[in-house]
Specification:
Order of helices and strands: HHHHHHHHHHHHH
Number of helices: 13
Number of strands: 0
Structural class: mainly alpha
Radius of gyration: 19 Å
CATH superfamily of the largest domain: Farnesyl Diphosphate Synthase
Number of domains: 2
Low-confidence stretches: 1-15
Mean pLDDT: 90
CATH topology of the largest domain: Farnesyl Diphosphate Synthase
CATH class of the largest domain: Mainly Alpha
Helix content: 55-70%
Length: about 280
């Protein structure tokens, strides 16, 4: 679960004892694949052209693994050697891993979104493949489960955006759809400068309601996952909802400061996770 905050690729149950032990190597391998690609796109001082070249090389190594060939030495030991074992052991779908790389590459060249539909299309590649990979590992199938997983993962991605305004703005990125900014009479440049105000807070309240609705729509999935996996997902769902509560408690001032969770949040998260019932979905 996200112990302190909702981060881009920290929705994996990597270190939790709730992660099914026999699946932990696969989950860790997928995590390191996504985390490393995310760092190639975001971290350090490389130029956009250098980052694009790195991600192309990274994709070539992934494709080599699927073809049963040796990857390049650069990422072999930390990423592709353990990932190759899990690719073949669990028959991981290549399209889902490649979709994540598509999203990282898009982040290098696209920093604005015209509509909610366009932003959701990005989430289909940046977030939803994570949930679908985990469902594949858990052996859970069916259109309903996939739709619920997508709703949870998209909600987590949106919550990450809504808590990260103070980080994305200085980097020139705005994930708030232009149509929403226009409806509230807000300018994108002012948003990037994190200029607070009543209109901005009203918009953030709407965006949080959107994410909450998606999370609640996906929450029944926690009852479809077996054993520890279902309990892990309960905590992830409640963690996301708790971040939204933090933003609400700040009077939606996340343009000014970043909301976070701490150790004192664990008890209420656990209590809410325990209280989730099939007819109730997310209990917050």
């Amino acid at each position: 679960m996200p112990a302190v905050s909702i981060e881009h690729y920290e929705n994996f149950p990597v270190a939790s004892w709730l992660c099914p032990p026999h699946l932990r190597p696969a989950v860790v391998a997928i995590y390191h694949f996504a985390r490393t690609a995310d760092d190639l796109a975001d971290e350090g001082t490389a130029s956009t052209a250098e980052r694009q070249a790195d991600l192309r090389a990274y994709r070539a190594d992934l494709q080599a693994c699927f073809a049963g060939q040796a990857p390049s030495p650069r990422w072999a030991r930390p990423v592709f050697e353990p990932l190759a074992v899990q690719l073949h052991r669990h028959a991981l779908p290549a399209a889902l891993l490649e979709a994540l790389l598509d999203a990282f590459e898009q982040d290098l060249v696209k920093t604005r979104y015209r509509s909610r539909e366009e932003l959701l299309h990005y989430c289909e590649r940046s977030a939803n493949p994570v949930g679908r990979l985990l469902l594949h590992l858990y052996g859970v199938q069916g259109a309903t489960a996939l739709a619920q997983s997508d709703a949870i993962c998209t909600a987590l991605q949106l919550i990450n955006f809504w808590q990260d305004f103070t980080r994305d703005g200085p980097n020139g990125r705005c994930y708030v759809p232009q149509s929403d900014l226009d409806r509230h009479g807000l300018e994108v440049q002012a948003w990037l400068r994190c200029e607070d105000g009543p209109a901005a807070r009203a918009l953030i309240a709407e965006l949080c309601a959107w994410a909450r609705q998606l999370m609640r729509a996906g929450a029944p999935l926690v009852h479809a996952l077996p054993g520890r996996a279902g309990w892990e997902l309960r905590l992830v769902v409640q963690g996301g909802l708790r971040i939204l509560e933090r933003i609400e408690a700040m009077d939606h001032a996340s343009l000014v400061r970043r909301p976070q969770l701490g150790a004192l949040d664990f008890a209420p998260l656990l209590w809410r996770a325990l209280r989730m019932r099939p007819t109730q979905g997310a209990a917050a």
